[in-house]
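Usage example:
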Amino acid sequence: MVDKVLGVLGGMGPLASAHFMVRLTLLTPAAEDQAHIPAVLWSDPRVPPRTAAKLQGGADPLPALLRGIRGLQAAGCGAIAIPCNTAHGWFEPMRDATPLPILHIVDAAAADLARQDVAPGRIGLMGTAATLAMRLYQDRLEGAGWDCLVPDGDAMQRLVTPAIDLVKANRVAEAYPPLAEVAQGLAARGAQAVVLGCTEIPLGIAAGPTLPFPVIDTIDALARASIAWALD
Amino acid sequence: MVDKVLGVLGGMGPLASAHFMVRLTLLTPAAEDQAHIPAVLWSDPRVPPRTAAKLQGGADPLPALLRGIRGLQAAGCGAIAIPCNTAHGWFEPMRDATPLPILHIVDAAAADLARQDVAPGRIGLMGTAATLAMRLYQDRLEGAGWDCLVPDGDAMQRLVTPAIDLVKANRVAEAYPPLAEVAQGLAARGAQAVVLGCTEIPLGIAAGPTLPFPVIDTIDALARASIAWALD
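Running the assembly step on the lines above writes:
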């Protein structure tokens, strides 16, 4: 029986964190309920939008993020996973506010690049405009030899940003064509694999035909990192 | 913005409660994160098996259930949903231990029978051996004019019980054939609709071709009742 309790700071968006719980379960080697990982999901979709806060001076999400972390701590959790890439723009103040380890989603993605044998070199990176602008991935991955190609401003505005919003509005199937178009464009520019660095993106990409190159699903990557923590 | 917080007492099994969170999200009319329902999922798969407790004198799950309810209450939840039918065998002591309303899954199923225009008369009922033996559904539904046909002992032992265990072991696709066979058998005996009265069963039934008669998915039914509570 697993006695570590995983805290999941979610609701950003709620479909992504619910799907994270599904993947956490399905990726756990377990033959009965009692062998699965205890977890508390704090799904708070009221957290102010992260991209607007970073790029347009919108309301600060940090107080709501810290409220969730305090709630997970009070519930007895031993570590925290945050299935929202953009929220990692507040990683340092969250880490400084809790004694619990926070599993960083970019480290989880890097581990998944290695697990999928993606060689050092050119890879594609999709995410929110804020995640790209903060260089959350580029600075961490380039040190390990992966050079990140990102969509241009037109593709972000016309395809990626609206597709993320479609997933948050439960219109998941409609998000596939624009997201697949951008991923294919990155592959055409020489990316050997594409990191889906916003947890809405793998939901949209799963709604259509499988892409003909490796993708890093950051929901699955964080679920794998969480399972490794819980079963360690 | 929704300010009521739903508490979800889950982990029984963890795939069912994770999928409940997905359905809660997808069934909510929301065009952005902030219009979705705040929720805390307490996913505790360590709760002792409910059927073994009722039928074979196994460990009592009530202390673990009450621990979860206290945790959800401390997290600020305003009502509790429990996406496990068998756990409703402990409904009264749970209700008596908290000031929060608990949304009863059988009431949610009855509302869904009405929503799907299932006329009074013969319906099928599938569930764990404990749920059937406790008459959780029969006594509540027969008062409303729905007569419950249940699988015979052989079908329970050979098909339903092993299929529920397959879902808990993440072998979801393998659960479809035995569950579909039982549902079709109930339809052949005159059931106009079949209540999937164990939250593992709709997961297995969703893994294959749609059945040619109405089914009551108790995950969706409880999600609809939860949304009605939150948006009221």
